[in-house]
Design brief:
alpha/beta, D-Maltodextrin-Binding Protein, domain 2, about 325 residues, seven-stranded mixed β-sheet
Amino acid sequence: MRYLVVLVLIFCAAAAAAQPWEDRRRFGPEAGDGPVLRILSSTDTAFFEPILARFLSERPGVAIDYFVTGTADVDRRFRADPGAYDLVISSAMDLQLKLANDGFALPLAEIAHPAWAQWRQSLFAFTTEPAAIVVNRTAFAKGAVPKTRQALIEVLRAEPERFRDRIGTYDVRESGLGYLFATQDARVTETYWRLTEVMGALGTRLYCCSGEMIDDLSDGTILVAYNVLGSYAAARADTTDDLQIVLPSDFPTTMMRTAFVSERTEHGNLAAAFVRHLLEREPEDASDESYPLPALAPVADGQSAIVLGPALITYLDALKRRTFLREWEDAIIQRP
């Protein structure tokens, strides 16, 4: 029986490793004797391409292999083969902190960074990004767009047929960032659970990632997306008049995108240089087109910041995770 269990685990690990990438690109020379920096990331290539290009412009002999997958899959793939990547970048702060705590991150004592934006000189935050409610304006042509979670509840209850099957949010069972946002919302207020139950009663669509939600918002498949990553929504909002981004005034939640160098990197100095490259941007450089992601900045008063600290990994405890997911499924997937 023990051998059967081992075989099943090996099979599952192989199956996970065989899953296709969302994107995989080589930047820099296709061939040569220079080093190749391998970056595992949850950030879409379109956002990172200018950042990679600027880094490589000063290092003509260097290449970068950039692998993109979902936040939960970033964690699974890296744990399965930490020697395969030099850097890990993700918006799922809790999973990143757990990896650093588990000894997978290389300490970079030479990098100076604010205490609130790093963890034990191993994990470094380089953006500040809000969770947003994004709506298709056509759904609110005759009324005000809700600015709070409670206001959204009232709108959904008042016009259930308008919004039935036309609401979207993360599938927190599959999305690491979605799970992070959901657990942080639930920690702050019970309004989250009331909203989740209302959305569940209306047949909410579940998504892996912000990009797919925004695609469906743009073409009218859905009218409301809850807890969309603000930077992705802002990028799309620049190209369409149909979308409106709402940062809930009751308690805006803000996360920080983080990066660390693999403890098993083959290119420690180069990987550390890339981390410094990520951290060198200042908030006043917001118009810099070579860095399309939001800059790192302290969270304003009144916003709920997700802090890099031990409390962040509370909901990664196996029992707490099972309990939370069971309650979430009861609320969002209301079977007849």
